[in-house]
């Protein structure tokens, strides 16, 4: 809940507010008879990881290791891990990147995610814990927290609703693979059917520049505000795009929500909920 809101929790869910590093978490896993852990709790800011690599590692590596130990000791069958596509592959050799693309992280955030992927393979070999690794593109959608570096769609929507202009870093030609949150959720639900361990990209296979993204956001918001620019971030990747054919072949998954549809739904949510 470090970035979420309690009112967004499904009323059918049992909620325990506890750190993944808390030793008492094992008691909850046992009490609830949990057999599948879907691990999405993380430090998600690339820029913060550059500023403080130790803090990033404490959350994303050590915190995950403690959760993995609890999973093994409590008899969990499967561990679903939210990894990253762009930050793990780094500056890509080809587009879109397949899962076997060379892994060249350029930030502590990418390094921490790649490190955990290695630990998941160790836990599978050592303890038999099955794992599904999802390498996400840039996930966006309703309920996303706008107070941070990671969610550019949420940040831009938030600024527009405050009457402020979006701020583009650099020339705006840097690209990302933007994937709507509902498509990501569907991938996670389908993963429950898998028996073994595997790694999948979750993206659209489409590159979108920040300039193009901003134009679409302004269009759905019916805004003609002038965009502002700022200096580029030295650690920022130039291009990122993910090939999802492996996931489609294994689980018949493909993205259903177009970028414009997702941006429209997101803007309407932000507008109606005062986020």
TrEMBL record:
SUPFAM superfamilies: NAD(P)-binding Rossmann-fold domains. InterPro entries: NAD(P)-bd_dom, NAD(P)-bd_dom_sf. This is NAD(P)-binding domain-containing protein. Residues 8-266 form the NAD(P)-binding domain. It comes from marine metagenome. Transmembrane segments: none annotated.
